[in-house]
Amino acid sequence: MSDPILSLSAVYTDIAQYHILQGVDLVVPRGQVTMLLGRNGVGKTTTLKTIMGQWAAKSGQIQFGGADITQMATSARARAGIGFVPEDMGIFSDLTVAENMALGCISGPLKPERKDWLLSAFPALATFWEAEAGNLSGGQKQMLSIARALAEDRKLYLIDEPTKGLAPAIVSTMAAALRELKAQGASILLVEQNFSVAKALGDSAAVMDDGRVIWTGEMAELATSKDLQERLMGLSMEAH
């Protein structure tokens, strides 16, 4: 694979006394959506947080755009072009939607054309633009979290379970926005338990188990093979 946007080589991460990542090798192709899959508790969220620098890698190497960022501060990784949507959303409840969005803009104010696109993708945010984010529903907060990460063009987006616990209509809105982002040529590493969303968006896939990546390949191959799904994850996608 030529010129990947991101690569992890033998990355180990400990949290307190727990050895969470145990030699993760992962390559994210430029301009594609890579699905990071696996059962709960296998290290997917820790992988994203290690890439973002919220957890420090104990050993191994993380390369982004050809540069070693293993020891780089989280803020510097953000400035280098990595956007992160955490599972817990990280919304500032006492700030307005507009103020939350402003925090996602590193290089300057939100550009009008970018704002127009985001509000067309997430219409609820237009309705509550001047309202405090704490008044939003759970689904609307998740929309805001994603929209904030998309406030500027990023070289890479890390997105952790964006559709978790959401109503089907909001899932459809999320998937449509991510599909449009994909069409724009974005590079995305996406953790997602909704397999219909994973199948629709993913180009490639990496499956984790016990703190390691145990399989990589085309998302289409994984989506069409029940035997592979059950061997790697102990379940069939059709049942989820």
Structural commentary:
- The chain has ten helices and ten strands.
- The protein has 240 residues and is of the alpha/beta class.
- The chain has two domains: 1-81 and 157-240, Rossmann fold (3-Layer(aba) Sandwich); 88-153, no CATH class.
- A six-stranded mixed beta sheet has the order 6-7-8-3-9-10, sandwiched between helices. A four-stranded antiparallel beta sheet has the order 2-1-4-5, with helices on one face.
- The longest helix is centred in the C-terminal third of the chain and has 16 residues, at 168-183.
- The radius of gyration is 17 Å and the shape is globular.
- It starts with 5 loop residues before the first strand and ends in a 7-residue tail after the last helix.
- The mean pLDDT is 93.
- It holds the Pfam family ABC_tran.
Give the number of DSSP strands. Answer: 10
- The radius of gyration is 17 Å
Name the CATH superfamily classification of the largest domain: P-loop containing nucleotide triphosphate hydrolases
Number of self-contained structural domains: 2
Main sheet properties: 6 strands, mixed
Helix tally equals 10
Strand content: 25-35%
Q: How far do the termini sit from each other?
A: 31 Å
Gross CATH architecture of the largest domain = 3-Layer(aba) Sandwich
Portion in helices: 25-40%
Task: Assign the CATH class of the largest domain.
Answer: Alpha Beta
Strand order of the largest sheet: 6-7-8-3-9-10
Mean pLDDT: 93
Using the coordinates shown, work out and report the CATH topology of the largest domain: Rossmann fold
Shape, per Cα inertia axes: globular
Pfam families: ABC_tran
InterPro entries: AAA+_ATPase, ABC_transporter-like_ATP-bd, ABC_transporter-like_CS, BCAA_Transport_ATP-bd_LivF, P-loop_NTPase
Family: Belongs to the ABC transporter superfamily.
GO molecular function: ATP binding; ATP hydrolysis activity; branched-chain amino acid transmembrane transporter activity
